[in-house]
Specification:
The protein is an alpha/beta fold. The protein contains 7 helices and 13 strands. The strands form 3 sheets. It has a 7-stranded mixed beta sheet with strand order 9-8-7-10-11-13-12, with helices on both faces. Helix 6 links the parallel strand 10 and strand 11. Helix 2 crosses helix 3. The longest helix is centred in the first third of the chain and has 14 residues. The radius of gyration is 19 Å and the shape is globular. The relative contact order is 0.10.
């Protein structure tokens, strides 16, 4: 009898993405996939994760194992619906609680900017769960942006804007137009660039930045010092309100959320 709980997998609506052992044969993978679909009735497709998230767009390579031959997902989270392609759009179901927690911090009337917005999960959950005046989501990937626009319509929202483009180019243009935000969510990928240099100029006084960074526990102080240095370089005074582990991404390496308040 195949034990479904023996494998690590993520379920995204109708699709399960499974990380199999490299030594497993295709027949064994198919048996597990069929058992998984039998146990989880909502799953109609099982894909194998064949690589890590890679590139600036954080895309994932998968291979069909069983079920319907589709890589398009309809996923529900926090009362919101999202449609996307698993291979062309980054989406982490493990950040569901994180998105809800950030959304509940948003105060009525706030203008919120979400960077690296993907198919707009942060933006849409924020718009649904808060009384934000305006939520703007910036995403580099064209395919993600296409799905993001569709997801805004799917969730019947009229206060979410989707901008397709590189934050390094989009944010300076916003600055020239004197756009300012009460809150910036930096759901950044695991890249060396902090992107704080283009983000700080757009935050209002007493505004909040939720910065996502990746490091080992003993490296956290170094990341906080980097944020302080970036703020000093931008001639902005900040106060770090708190830090929170927002998931692990490897052996002893974590995704951290740093809540930064701008005080000038």
């Amino acid at each position: 009898m195949v034990k479904v709980s023996d494998k690590g997998y993520d379920i995204l609506g109708n699709i399960a993405i499974v990380k199999f052992d490299r030594k497993q044969k295709l027949g064994e993978k198919k048996k597990f996939a069929l058992a998984l679909m039998d146990e989880r009735k909502m799953v109609t497709t099982v894909l194998e994760k064949v690589g890590k998230f890679s590139g600036r767009l954080r895309t994932l390579s998968t291979k069909w194992i069983a079920g319907e031959k589709s890589k398009e997902v309809i996923y529900r989270e926090n009362g919101c619906f999202f449609r996307f392609n698993t291979d062309t759009c980054y989406f982490s179901p493990r950040l569901a609680n994180e998105r809800l927690e950030v959304a509940k911090m948003v105060k009525p009337g706030e203008e919120v900017l979400v960077l690296f917005g993907g198919v707009a999960p942060f933006a849409i959950v924020i718009a649904k769960e808060s009384k934000a005046k305006r939520v703007v989501s910036v995403e580099l990937g064209k395919d993600c942006s296409k799905y993001a626009l569709e997801n805004v319509k799917r969730n019947k929202l009229n206060n979410v804007e989707i901008i397709q483009g590189d934050v390094k180019r989009v944010l300076p243009l916003m600055h020239k137009k004197k756009e300012r935000y009460d809150r910036i969510v930096m759901a950044r990928p695991n890249l060396k660039d902090s992107f704080l240099d283009v983000s700080f100029p757009l935050i209002r006084k007493n505004g909040m930045i939720h910065y996502y960074g990746f490091c080992k526990e003993e490296e956290l102080d170094g990341m906080l010092e980097m944020i302080k240095w970036e703020a000093k370089n931008a001639k902005i005074k900040i106060k770090i309100i708190g830090t929170r582990k927002a998931g692990d991404i490897g052996v002893r390496k974590f995704r951290y959320r740093v809540d930064v308040k701008v005080v000038n």
